[in-house]
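FW: tagging you since you asked about this chain on Friday. Here's the raw sequence from the shared folder, copied in full. Didn't touch anything.
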Amino acid sequence: MKKNTYVSPVGGLPSQSKLLTDRAVFKSAYAVIPRGCFTDIVTSFLPFWKHMRMWVVARPMTGFAETFSQYVVQLEPNGGSDNPEANSGVQSVLFLTSGSAELTINSESYILKSGSYAYIPAGSEWSIWSNSNEETNFHWIRKLYKDINGVERPAAFVKNENECEDIEMPNSNNTWFTKRFVEPDDIRHDMHVNIVTFKPGGVIPFAETHVMEHGIYILEGKAVYHLNQDWVEVEAGDFLWLRAFCPQACYAGGPGPFRYLLYKDVNRHMPFL
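HL: got it, structure written out here
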């Protein structure tokens, strides 16, 4: 079985002789943040964290992400926090791409390794600390939880992606798969964070246009993505934001698998603004 690989930011500073033009794009329907944008210049920090820095790749704002925020967090050895989340209404998903960390949710402890996925319900008391001698990198996706009368909140859980099945998309000739950490019909959840895989030659064969907003972080490989009539090349380490109803398709040209971490909002009525 092939071992899954994950690209994490390396930081650093660009050369003064580097050309200014790049693949970065920001439009009303989508944005592309290439891996080269993850430099020391644009890191952020948070209160009550030690030995950490992060790159903010999505935040709620006019003309950009509306339903979620996403951070790419880097912990030095002994880095972490006992008070990571200031908003009790926010739920979180963590996905670890390198290193190791101890996560505690409501007094229950878990060890996270590469490929570990953790769901943290809104209102939880939680902490996370690196327990590796190397840097630990993880994605932190945050969303306000939308309570529904008569529907209980989902419970915390931790899984590794190796424990989850790759579900083949119908009629894809064994080239397009989705790995789900939450069952689609579990109405308690109002967001999904999945892993999508295309083998070389795999395609989304039509321009999807749907209500779900997306955050997409490329974990492995490269492809050409079709975004609102534009074709853009993407590779491991890039981040894409897709507005609701942005037409989208892709073609994975190889030579290896093309894999990404996918956020989408689900299972709730549309709000009236």
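FW: DSSP finds no helices and 20 strands in the chain.
HL: agreed, and The chain has a mean pLDDT of 96.
FW: great, closing this out.
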